Amino acid sequence: FVYSFQRAVDPATASPYAWYMEYTKMKNAKDIVAGKKDKSELGVKAVDDHTLVVELDTAVPYFVMMMGHTTVKPVHQATVEKFGDQWTKPENFVGNGAY
C-alpha cells in the first residue's frame, strides 16, 4: 500500500486521481502533488507485514470509507517497475481482486 499511495501522489506519475489523495488529508499529500515535497514524505508507512499506519493532517471521519476508492488500491510494485506504462495489459497485470 505504501508504494501505491506514494505512486498516486507522485507528480511524475501524473495520476488523474491525485486530487483524491489530497482529499484524504494524508500528511503532505497536497504538497507532494504540487511538487513541493518528495513522495517519500507522504504520511504512510508499513510498520510490519500486516500493519499500515496513515498520518492525517486533520481528522477525517469518513477516511475509512475513502479507502474503498480505486485510487488507493494496492498495485504490484515489481510489475509496474518491470512493465512501466504497459503494466495493466492483461498479459502483464498482477492484481488482488475478488476473482
Automatic annotation (TrEMBL):
<dbReference type="Pfam" id="PF00496">
    <property type="entry name" value="SBP_bac_5"/>
</dbReference>
<protein>
    <submittedName>
        <fullName>Oligopeptide ABC transporter substrate-binding protein OppA</fullName>
    </submittedName>
</protein>
<feature type="domain" description="Solute-binding protein family 5">
    <location>
        <begin position="1"/>
        <end position="99"/>
    </location>
</feature>
<dbReference type="InterPro" id="IPR000914">
    <property type="entry name" value="SBP_5_dom"/>
</dbReference>
